[in-house]
Amino acid sequence: MDKRMLRRTIVAARRSMSETGRRAGAAAVRESLMDRPWVQMAGLVACYWSTGEEPQTHGLVFALWKHGATVILPVLRADHDLDWAVYDGPDSLEPGPYGIMQPVDVRRGVDAIRTAALVIVPALAVDAKTGVRLGRGGGSYDRALARVGPNVPTVALLHDGELIEGVPTESHDQRVRYAAMPSGIIALR
Known about the structure:
The chain contains five helices and twelve strands. It is of the alpha/beta class. The chain has a single domain, classed as Rossmann fold. The strands form three sheets. It has a seven-stranded mixed beta sheet. A three-stranded mixed beta sheet has the order 8-7-10. Helix 2 runs parallel beside helix 4 (58-67).
């Protein structure tokens, strides 16, 4: 199956999920992640503010922030690369491109992600054997992940059933080290 068809299939499955199931899944992922020492000790966390049918991150971002982490969220640039700005509570966000909420704080630059101790990214699917993530197709997170050091935990948030074998891969596709789903966190490499 090519990337476009796989994206359509996963998005359709996500749309069929109940809101109750999504909320329960988000709570399970949040609790599982917050129990990990490498999450608890991360002083600077790069995450994203979920939208639509993505695994919900609003509670996770808030929990990380309340735990004392500095959380940076992406700000989409005109060239589709990701700038980063600090999350300072729910009132620190405003609608950005495509209606995605982003911080109003000073932009830290595309390289701000290099200093993160933990990076949490969206994905439609992750290959269970290689850790390659399938994104929406814009390449924004692949560029951001390419800037992350090799020892930094990188986590893709998924719904159950989205850790699969056979994600189509191109040379620019980046791998993640973990897949976090309601059913658990899986180390990939």
